[in-house]
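To: structure desk
From: M.T.
Subject: fold request, one chain
Message: Could you run this one when you get a chance? Sequence is below, nothing fancy, just the single chain.
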Amino acid sequence: MPSQIASIKSVKAREILDSRGNPTVEVEVVLIDGTTGVASVPSGASTGKYEAVELRDGDKRRYRGLGVLKAIEHVNTEIASAIVGMSALEQAAIDQRLIELDGTANKARLGANALLATSLAVAKAGASFRGVPLYRYLGGSRAKQLPVPMLNILNGGKHASGSIDFQEFMIVPVGAADFHKAMQMSSEVYHSLRRVLEDKRLSTNVGDEGGFAPQLPANEDALRLILTAVDRAGYKAGQDLFIALDPAASTFYQDGEYVLSREGVTLSPTEMIDYYVKLISDYPIVSIEDGLVEDDWANWSLLTARLGKKTQVVGDDLYATNMKRLEKGIDQKASNSILIKVNQIGTISETLAVIERARQAGWTTIVSHRSGETEDTTIADLAVASNAEFIKSGAPCRSERLAKYNRLLRIEEELGKAAHYPGKRVLYNLERIE
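Reply: Done. Structure tokens follow.
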């Protein structure tokens, strides 16, 4: 009887705008008892070529070709016809139906944006029907760990035109006692960084993810600014907060070499690895994401062999939240951590499966936002549901970023004494952290 009451009555998609003012897909699923689930999907600027395909209209007369009316139409017709009448409580079956309906390896026919918005909306409807929060619905009684936030407080690369070569400079508050304290520390350092920039008469404009985007001559200048900000905020770098990098190396990879244009330096793959080795010896860096181009498996393995005991080596474009690519990475020891982006793969079930497989391999997982975001907070619940070690949702700035952090603050309060913030223990695969 409950499954009949939870059957899907209607599925409707609409076109809304993301944080960059570009169209994206929102889906509303209504059950026969009136229960509703609404979800919207993000969009990336620095995207890997192995990601599931985000369907765009291509009509230059409308939103510069970025409209999503085709994806909307697919939801309102084919997808709706396929899942209306199914139980919202059968998430895996619905996601499998969506995958089979699309029929392509990369979700190109119907669009990963159409499939994902539907998948997430179904999950939210199922949670509402059960009367439980989404993290509990997806993760069960084991869902109680708050992720350590990785906050992108200084932007470069594709997230901030004209800034430095590396895309993200993050702070990681592993020294906090709980998630509330982690956000307090991070906010204080963020505002301290603003004052440091103002003192040096550098720009305090922000990039897509809320981090400051000053024009600097070198990546190390960004690191020095952050260390100064941490110190002025009254904290100790390498104890209270560490640094994480996302160079997004594919964006400055040209003809087999890495071109750091701001620094006027061109490096071979082995020289690029040497560059990272020096950085982590000079600065309290505990994580490097997308340090190399996404197809260079041999050098990824070398990077992990050289840095993996001291630094979290994170694959994003390398894996694209794809199980087959993850298995290859595990086999080749290409990293010791994986970034998780739901829109890279297209359904919540596939996402959870990738997280579980990475954990079986002893890797850490980082649930991540995208540069083009909405107010949807699903990734916050997903991080808790899967007991993910980390979450990336940008700087403590801009409401579409803070919505995720604020959701986690509420979850921590809701969990009460059962809430667990792992702190430095989250870096269990590194030798240098006590």
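Reply (cont.): DSSP finds 14 helices and 14 strands in the chain. Let me know if you need anything else for the meeting.
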